[in-house]
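Technical note accompanying the year-one report. For the benefit of new consortium partners, we illustrate the data format agreed upon in the data management plan: each record pairs a sequence with a structure-token string. No post-processing was applied to the example shown here.
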Amino acid sequence: MNKNKKWQKPTIEAPQIELLEKFSNAMGVSSDEGEIRQMVIEQIKESADRYEIDVLGSVIAYKAGKGKDLPTVLIAAHMDEVGFMIYTDDKDGIYGFEKLGGIDDRHLAGKPVQIGKDKIFAVIGAKPIHLTTAAERKNAIPYDQLKMDTGPSAAKKPQIGDTATFATKFKRIGDSLMGKAFDNRVGVTTLIEILKNAPDNINLVAAFTVQEEVGLRGAGVVAEKVKPDLALAIDCTPAYDMPVWDDSENTQYNTKLDEGPALYTADNRTYGDPRLINLFKQTGDTYGIKYQMRQPGGGGTDAGAMHMQAGGIPAMSISVPGRYMHTAASIIRIADWENYYALILTALSHIDNQLVATPR
């Protein structure tokens, strides 16, 4: 791979951070992505050649390259976040709930949440420590023993079926960003920028998908419809790079902050296509863009659904590492996000029909 002499590294600036803040603070739990969908449409309607909303609610934007017989590349970033759904009204402002997506019960008690389109404020209530037994304190409280408490005189009342999510507000902390739903609002924000700056050598299809957190549902439908030559899932992946308390080496870190975007070789749903993995590694090495290899195993992304559609689609995943995923607040590094954006956009500029035709 030869480096383009005119190449300048794409950067993440204040406008992109401000956009991520808006997406992070907004609500878009799996199956109820309407608020995020409208925000996405406002951002892409000028840069896409056209866009559509499919039956499940994913936004599919098209940007044609310049030339004939160009490869079609589908990039998916899921709009949904993990959250909750109200399922019982226990009166006096107390509501039972179900979880939507993978949320650890240990992270729930005492957390502020927002419910429904009116963003009704509530707290996830639990017995205070003063009243618990020693045996109770040894275990996480199961979510079905927790309730959301809005207070009995709230101006508006949640309805059965309303979705809810954490009420965390975005914050910049030096070179880091903190907020909820970075999985995957960081991917959504990045895909909007990629669409605005799409390279001319490919036909780009940017899919802002739904229901990833409950089974990769939206991406499979999109991939079957589009039938691309290649597919890429862009996401945010857990970074378990904390110190080990006995001073031994942490060898189960998965990914690490400050080491750049993570390329997937394998997870629970996909073995990354080696042609795409090599493309991204060569791009990073040639252009001096920092990246890391995600430890194989665990988790899954939209690539897991896309690669099995339309007779098989070469696919892989690339993610920003983030600490504390699927909790009330996550942390990412701005530098990792910038390298993620730069690596994806630059690698796309090197895709051609020869890559597509190369045997796996």
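Partners are asked to follow this layout when depositing records. The two ends are 19 Å apart (CA to CA).
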